[in-house]
Prior knowledge:
Order of helices and strands: EHEHEHEHEEHEHEHEHEHEEH
Amino acid sequence: xxxxxxxxxxxxxxxxxxxxxxxxxxxxxxxxxxxxxxxxxxxxxxxxxxxxxxxxxxxxxxxxxxxxxxxxxxxxxxxxxxxxxxxxxxxxxxxxxxxxxxxxxxxxxxxxxxxxxxxxxxxxxxxxxxxxxxxxxxxxxxxxxxxxxxxxxxxxxxxxxxxxxxxxxxxxxxxxxxxxxxxxxxxxxxxxxxxxxxxxxxxxxxxxxxxxxxxxxxxxxxxxxxxxxxxxxxxxxxxxxxxxxxxxxxxxxxxxxxxxxxxxxx
Length: 266
């Protein structure tokens, strides 16, 4: 059985491709109920089970053992390090324990290809704290955060000197979280991405944005369109660097990953 750790468009694409070439039963997990709703259609497939909750160590081990998982495909978001770290450690532990049985649990990672941001009007930071400190030297700038609702607490300090707009998912929980943290409705852009270059340009121009906050998420997921829009509008990009983790076997294209899966017996 295969377990896909999801939460990204990539994970849904990987699932679709595996279903075309394999009759293997698949579990796909996402940390949120919203992510589960995006998988509603494939969830009707008798070979697919969808799990929509944030998993702890005990639940992860239970999934692997009870569902007899032979291959884990980690297609979680590049910044969702916690789940990756836990699963990598769990795989190592279980493989060590099962040495005598000669049964190896395989773990592979799908990592979005990095985008070349160039150097003009681009600033990179190790973490959100560094980015906030950078912006605190300015006043009355229009700033658009595309980090999502999970970062709202960490970036709210920016509002003290500047005008901060936030782009978040149009879910009740995301909007409620923003309002509870003091974000005004006029500064909340609640829309589902990914967004085209022209849509990004429209937002940048409408709100007269000076700085756009993003992550090094990779070529997919709308990052390229954000970059191109910022370049055209002469908006500075503030990017949080992608975390570095030793994943072992890593694939940057879905086709290569699928070829690997086809050659396995899990």
